[in-house]
Amino acid sequence: MNANSNSIRGTTILAVRRNNETAIAADGQVTFGDIAIKSSAKKLHKFLDSKVIIGMAGAVSDCLFMLEKIESLLETYGNLPKAMIELAKSIRGANLHGQLLAVDSRHILILEGSGNVMQPEENVAAIGSGGMFAWSAAYALLKNTDLSAKDIVKNAMEIAAKLCIYTNNELSIEVLKEE
């Protein structure tokens, strides 16, 4: 899902949608170069009374800039897809070194720092250094098991933590149910 996953190091964010349930997970590891400096960071942020949850990967300052902008846009539009598109339009050409993975009860969206917004067709999306590991594991679990979205993200993130040196097992998991 993330063609630039090797350029963003230091975190893994994964989202899965199944049976009217969307789960999003983040690891807790923070790195500075090749050094793990924190193991329990909170990388999932809630907006619109916890109806939207956004995880971030990449340069912290760029991610926080995008989160600040998306918060304002969510308050203006009250709609995740519209807010993400408006944010994308406002950052095109800025070449920010960060990505956002945003979910509500019906959508999974990725925003890259270049201004691209993507919505996956397969109900799985991931960003960050362990994104491809987590995405692959989640996709396989989604296609070959009856696990809930929450159990899929938990298991897939644990697999990613075993494979990616920038991802750990200190997971934050949030679940949204379709209303």
Question: How is this structure best described in words?
Answer:
- It is globular and about 40 Å long.
- The strands form 3 sheets. The protein has a 5-stranded antiparallel beta sheet with strand order 5-6-7-8-9, covered by helices on one side.
- Strand 8 (108-112) and strand 9 (117-118) form a beta hairpin.
- Helix 1 (60-77) packs across helix 2 and helix 3 packs across helix 4 (149-163).
- It has a single domain (12-174), classed as Glutamine Phosphoribosylpyrophosphate, subunit 1, domain 1 (4-Layer Sandwich), CATH 3.60.20.
- The chain has helices at 60-77, 80-91, 131-144, 149-163, and strands spanning 12-18, 21-26, 30-32, 35-38, 44-47, 52-58, 98-103, 108-112, 117-118, 124-128, 172-177.
- It is built from 4 helices and 11 strands, in the order ββββββααββββααβ.
- The protein has 179 residues and is α+β, with helices and mostly antiparallel strands.
- Helix content is 33%, strand content 31%.
Brief overview:
With 179 residues, this protein is an alpha+beta fold. The chain contains 4 helices and 11 strands.
Alpha plus pi helix count: 4
Arithmetic mean pLDDT: 92
Which homologous superfamily in CATH is the superfamily?
Answer: Aminohydrolase, N-terminal nucleophile (Ntn) domain
The strand count comes to 11
Please list the strands of the largest sheet in the order they lie side by side.
Answer: 5-6-7-8-9
Work out the strand percent: 25-35%
**Which shape, going by the Cα principal axes?**
globular
* Helix vs. strand class: alpha+beta
Q: Give the count of structural domains.
A: 1
User: Which regions contain 5 or more consecutive residues with pLDDT less than 50?
Assistant: 1-8
Q: Rounded to an integer, what's the Rg over CA atoms?
A: 15 Å
Which bin fits the share of residues in helices? 25-40%
